[in-house]
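Give me structure tokens for this 124-residue protein.
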Amino acid sequence: MAYFRKIPAKNKQGYKWICVTDAPPDPVTGERRQISRRADSKKEAEAKVDEALRKLAEHGIDEKRVKNLPFEKVAWEWLDVYSRGSVKASPVRVRTKEIKIILRYYAKVNIDKVPPSNASKDAQ
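Here you go.
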């Protein structure tokens, strides 16, 4: 059951709505988790919460937690998952060197602030 709260805001209406609902408990700690989203109307806020719950249920991704991860941690975690697949040692070695080069510039930057690569656009 979701609940709504009106909060003051500097927009045309003078207020915004926050929708808060319970999410599935944290799988590691078992602690209670709540998801809250803010929008101009109740329906928009509820739609945002439903979308976040859907992503959490389907992919197990908590958007707010992921946004605060540094690029370095995500890169090494990706390499670990990548190397577990059916990949030869040489591509893993190449990716390791590439990650080390990129980390010179983006190591401590939050993952949501890292710009996407344009390499795929150049190749097409």
